[in-house]
Design a protein that fits this description.
Order of helices and strands: HHHHEEEEHHHHH
Structural class: mainly alpha
CATH architecture of the largest domain: Orthogonal Bundle
CATH topology of the largest domain: MetI-like fold
Helix content: 55-70%
Radius of gyration: 25 Å
Strand order of the largest sheet: 1-2-3-4
Number of helices: 9
Shape: flat
CATH superfamily of the largest domain: MetI-like
Oligomer: single chain
Number of domains: 2
Largest sheet: 4 strands, antiparallel
Length: 309
Amino acid sequence: MTHDSKTPLWRDERFWRIASQLIVVFIVAVAIAIFWSNLTRNLQQLGIQLGFDFLQQQASFDIGETPLPYNPSDNYSRALWIGLINSLRIAIAGIILTTIVGITAGIARLSDNWLVRNLSLLYVEIFRNTPLLLQLLFWYSAVFLSLPKVDNKISLGDFIYISQNGVEFPWFTLSPEFSALLVGLTFYTGSFIAEIVRGGIQSVSKGQWEAAASLGLKPSLTMRLVVFPQALRVIIPPLTSQYLNLTKNSSLAIAIGYPDIYFVASTTFNQTGKAVEVMLLIMLTYLTLNLITSLLMNVFNRTVQIKER
C-alpha cells in the first residue's frame, strides 16, 4: 500500500507521534515551572535565600575515610567531592564483584551437581529475601567488628590480612565500613543477578546445546562459547537495572558510617540548613551516575545483539 501524500494532518501517524512527545515535554516543563515558582515563593516568605554560596564556606567536620587530602578547614565543596569519590569507589568495586558473584551463582543454579545447585539456591533465597539494611548491619557489627584486633589479625596467604581495622593488602587498606558495605551490596545484588543469569541461560534453545555437543564441545566450552554469548542479549537489560540499584542502594552507607556522598551531604545539610540545595545536589549526583551507567550498558548491549544479515 502506497502512502497518500494528501492524507490530512490529523490522520498522519508520524505527526501524532511527534506531537504527543511535544505535549508531554510541555506538560513536564509547566509542572517544573510551577514547582519552582512555589518553592522560591515559600522560601522568600520564610526569609531563606536560595543559593550555593555555602559550598565555599568552611566545612568544619571530619571525614573518616578520605582518598584525597582533606581537613576540616576545607570548604563544603571539597567535602562533597570526597564523598562523591567514596561513592564511586563503592559503586565501581561493587559492580565488578557483584557481576562475578551473580554470574557464578547463576550458572551454579543450573549445575548437574546436586550440592552445588542447592547451595546456590540457598544463597539466592536467603540474600534476596532479606532486607539490605539488615545485611549491612550484620556484616558490619557481627562480622567485621567481631574480628580480632590488629595485633592478632588473620592472615590469608602472604598478602591479605583481616582484622577489626578492615581488610589489608600490601598496597592499601580497606576500612571495616567500606568492607562491610562492599560485601553487603555484592552478595545482596548478586542474588538478583544470579536469577537474571539463570533465566537468560534457560532462554537459549536446547538445540544450541545439542548442536555444540554434536561438534564435540565440552559443557564448559559450550557455556562459554555458545550459550552465554547468546544469553547476554536477554541478561543485559535487567542487569543494567541491578547496577543502577546497587549505585542507589550504596546510600545506605550512612547506617554503618561510611562517608559516601549521601553521608557527607547529610552532614552538610545539618550544619548549613540548606535543605533544598543539598537535596538537589544529591539528586543530580545519583542521576548523573545512573545515566552514565545506563549509557555504557546500552552501548555494550548493542554490541552483543545478534545482527541479522
